[in-house]
Design brief:
Helices cover 43% and strands 13% of the residues. It is of the alpha/beta class and 548 residues long. It folds into three domains: 253 residues, Rossmann fold, CATH 3.40.50; 167 residues, Rossmann fold (3-Layer(aba) Sandwich), CATH 3.40.50; 84 residues, no CATH class. The protein has a five-stranded parallel sheet with strand order 2-1-3-4-5. Strands 8-7-6-9-10 form a five-stranded parallel sheet, with helices on both faces. The two termini are 48 Å apart.
């Protein structure tokens, strides 16, 4: 939505890391730690590192003394070279998510001892997150001066075999630790030392095969692998020559900053603080234009340059919903045209069924988000809010500081990158239950909405006239009989019950009602007007809509 001409809430303006540094100079950083999250929100990697160095000088004890509810995590860092600035970057990235990270960096080139049985702090007191950062020097430091691709393959095979063995043993000894590995980037300067393109191609194939093996270690319990290729794809150089030669820091600080951002996401997942709800505006966010002014035919969702950008964003949101993210629309619009656009626009990628809830009204959005959280039975800290209006974003930041806010601007081509940058919905592993989550929440919301109107005369009449079919029989195999009984609202734990009165012996009641005298039924399969299906074992309380 476009910003109103007046503004009662604005987003914080950035002045770099200075506010954090000022708190540190005054000795107030631990006492004011809840403010740090907002102060770091929009800082550049360089400014984040400055803030991270100040944050590294306070301890978890200091923070918890003032704010005992602050989530904390311990992080151990090891590798084969100097990891300049990584500890500060990880500290700052965790603080961006409201966490406090105690980061301990191991000695130079100590990764083998740390993962092995050596008496190092890393192995004696394993951290919550163990970062094992390997760079190209772990390979090229062991090849002969005049090397060929086969020499590189030999060293890579030895290194990956060793890594796999160490990782397997470490995770068995320390099941409570999440071990974070990375694929090893191939610097251009290494490939350029081969003058023929065939040898370069072979080197690339060998290197990528080794990284495939590293990625395969993510199948082990407690192991996460960060694919560095996705971090430097945007043009970040892998190494900085002077740091690499003089300081043995073989990964460029900008690349380590990107890596630290991923670590912040993993830390958030480790502490169970991944987000569950994506609440998105409609006008100017999911489509171009204003629905109330332009009508369904006038909004941009495809077929134009800007429309293609919105179509791309809708495709990503749809993919997130298919992976268990609860997508809700929160828009200042009338509900009828908003749902009509989602149902009937011929080029719309997102449709009404992709949303667990469509909230379109003229109430303040922070009120709508609070109500949405209540309806979903989640905290507001489970919500990520997206809007193109600085006014609306600032209002949410002020009224609901636990809601994370993504800033969209007037250039829709940037929307997808901004939505995905912080990995709000990342998880270690996606399960079938995760994928089914949106549908289950939608069904629960239908049930809640129904119950909210349960006392109205029209609803009561409708319920009393609704029939439920039930088939007693075994929990598997064909159903053996059929009876029909009208739904009768009762004070039972279920909103419907096939009996007009409650009984302390539901099994006997079912048997009597179904005229089942010879063999007690082991299940009751039911279907109702919501087309939901359940099998309720005798004496058990069903979690579905119909229970006995």
């Amino acid at each position: 939505m476009p910003s109103p001409s007046h503004s009662i809430a604005v987003e914080p303006t950035g002045v770099g890391a200075e506010p954090v540094l000022a708190l540190h100079r005054r000795g107030d950083l631990a006492a004011e730690y809840p403010r740090v999250r907002e102060l770091l929100a929009d800082l550049s990697p360089g400014e984040l590192s400055k803030a991270g160095r100040a944050l590294s000088k306070i301890t978890a004890h200091d923070v918890l003394a003032s704010h005992p509810g602050t989530p904390t995590i311990t992080v151990g860092v090891t590798g084969n070279a100097v990891l300049s600035g990584l500890s500060a970057a990880v500290t700052a990235q965790c603080a961006r998510h409201g966490l406090f990270a105690s980061v301990d960096e191991s000695d130079f080139d100590s990764w083998i001892r740390d993962l092995g049985d050596g008496e190092t702090p890393f192995s004696v007191s394993p951290p919550d997150l163990a970062l094992v950062v390997l760079d190209p020097a772990v390979v090229f430091g062991s090849v002969p001066p005049v090397w060929r691709p086969d020499n590189v393959q030999s060293v890579l095979d030895q290194r990956i075999d060793l890594l796999a063995s160490l990782v397997t043993h470490f995770t068995r000894r320390n099941p409570a630790t999440t071990l974070v590995l990375n694929t090893i980037p191939l610097p251009r300067v290494a490939a350029a030392q081969l003058t023929d393109h065939r040898s370069r191609a072979r080197l690339g194939a060998i290197w990528r095969s080794a990284n495939v093996r590293i990625l395969g270690l993510a199948e082990l319990a407690g192991v996460v692998v960060v694919d560095t290729e996705t971090l430097y794809f945007d043009g970040i150089a892998v190494t900085e020559p002077r740091l690499s030669v003089y300081a043995k820091a073989h990964l460029r600080p900008e690349l380590l900053s990107r890596y630290a951002r991923e670590v912040g996401h993993i830390a958030r997942q480790r502490l169970g603080r991944s987000k569950k709800v994506l609440a998105v505006d409609l006008d100017g966010t999911l489509w171009g234009g204003v629905l109330g002014d332009d009508g369904i035919e006038g909004i941009e969702v495809a077929d134009t340059y800007r429309g293609e950008a919105f179509r791309s964003l809708q495709g990503v949101v749809k993919k997130l919903a298919a992976q268990g993210v609860l997508v809700a629309a929160v828009s200042k619009n009338d509900i009828e045209p908003a749902t009509d656009a989602l149902r009937n626009h011929p080029r719309m990628t997102l449709h009404e069924d992709d949303f667990v809830r469509i909230v379109a009204n003229w109430r303040p959005k922070h009120d709508n988000l609070q109500e949405l959280a209540r309806d979903l039975n989640l905290g507001v800290d489970s919500i990520v809010f997206v809007d193109d209006s600085a006014y609306e974003r600032g209002l949410i930041t002020r009224e609901l500081p636990d809601v994370d806010v993504i800033s969209f601007d007037t250039e829709p081509a940037h929307h997808v990158e901004k939505l995905l940058t912080d990995g709000w919905f990342d998880t270690i592993e996606l399960t079938t239950d995760d994928r089914l989550r949106p549908q289950r929440y939608k069904e629960e919301l239908v049930r809640r909405d129904f119950l909210h109107t349960f006392e109205s005369p029209s609803t009561t009449t409708s319920v009393n006239s609704t029939w439920v079919s039930g088939w007693p029989g075994p929990t598997t195999g064909n159903c053996l009989g059929s009876r029909r009984s009208p739904c009768v609202p009762t004070s039972s734990t279920s909103p419907h019950n096939v009996f007009s009165r409650r009984t302390s012996r539901p099994f006997t009641a079912i048997r009597t009602a179904m005229c089942w005298e010879s063999t007690p039924p082991t299940a009751l399969a039911t279907t109702d007007w919501w087309a939901r299906y359940s099998r309720t074992a005798p004496g058990q309380r069903s979690t579905s809509t119909i229970s006995c």
